[in-house]
Design a protein that fits this description.
three-stranded parallel beta sheet; six-stranded parallel beta sheet
């Protein structure tokens, strides 16, 4: 039987209902959430993501602003803007849009963010609290992927989970999210470029997360029958005709978006699978909004430290 599609949009809409009420309560209490996006240079994907952020914030009554800097801005100039947003009492959450120009150290920018306004959950303090299992914030794409898996696997207790890809924002973060509970945690395996036999790990996974950025990396025969597959990869590939020749549109080769999993093969083996696009993507913005609301609640993680 073909796999059931795990669409992100219905889950996103359900979560937004609760977030809308939380946002209303904060506005009524005089703690209106406000998200600021720091943007350096020009990037089409970033512009599109910010458009989605603005639309989501507007729909929930959350303030939104952008702080745009030219591509030639120095690292110190960008850090000065980070400090300005840190000190702006109206701003409850800050996101640094990636990518930044190559002459700017993105890790240094995140290091200078106020952890209490870190809506991406990428500050070292935020990641450290994720390790401790005490953080309310986590990287948005990782949170979205886990949320999708939980929609059909409410409990991860004892499940074998394989994560393909070990980036800080996705792979490593997913592994930490899966280990938050002492009794309900999964048993995660994280695979990467140095993994010797990828298929040996993916075939035993009850839940498989794939986030590498390589089209067709995981084929149907690499998946355990009945598994849940969360494909996080985004790849732009040429559209080919039945002879394997590129299809032209307007004089240019037509392109389409696919994930890291060979969908047609995987859908005949697994029980659930996310489409690309339409799976993890719609939930990522919702996770950003959820983190923005958490920051606006006035949770000062620095007070909740060892001094208590």
């Amino acid at each position: 039987m073909p796999a059931l599609l795990l669409q992100g949009e219905p889950i996103a809409e359900r979560l937004l209902v609760g977030l809308r009420e939380e946002a209303k309560g904060l506005v009524a209490a005089g703690r209106a959430p406000r998200l600021a996006a720091l943007y350096v240079g020009e990037n089409r994907a970033s512009r599109l993501y910010m458009k989605k952020q603005r639309e989501a914030c507007s729909a929930l009554g959350i303030g939104y602003e952008t702080a745009a800097l030219p591509v030639e801005s120095t690292e110190e100039e960008v850090l000065a803007e980070v400090r300005r947003l840190n000190n702006d009492a109206r701003v409850s959450g800050i996101i640094v849009q990636m990518p930044v120009p190559p002459h700017i150290d993105s890790r240094r920018l995140r290091l200078h963010l106020d952890p209490a306004k870190d809506v991406e959950g990428m500050h070292p303090e935020s990641m450290g609290r994720l390790v401790y299992g005490t953080s309310t914030l986590a990287p948005c794409t990782a949170s979205a992927a886990v949320e999708l898996a939980r929609s059909v696997r409410p409990s991860f207790a004892g499940l074998d989970v394989t994560i393909v890809g070990h980036s800080e924002t996705v792979g490593k973060a997913i592994a930490l999210l899966l280990l938050q509970s002492p009794f309900e945690s999964a048993t995660p395996t994280v695979c990467h470029v140095a993994t010797r036999d990828l298929a040996a790990h993916t075939r035993r996974a009850d839940v498989l997360f794939v986030a590498v950025g390589k089209a067709g990396l995981v084929r149907g025969d690499m998946i355990k029958p009945g598994a849940t597959v969360i494909d996080i990869g985004i790849n732009h590939v040429d559209v080919l005709d039945e002879r394997g020749m590129p299809v032209l549109e307007g004089g240019k080769t037509a392109r389409r978006i696919v994930g890291d999993v060979l969908f047609e093969e995987a859908a005949n083996v697994c029980a659930h699978i996310t489409p690309v696009p339409g799976g993890v993507g719609p939930l990522t913005v919702v996770m950003l909004i959820r983190n923005t609301i958490e920051c606006a609640k006035g949770i000062d993680r620095r007070r909740d430290s060892v001094s208590h």
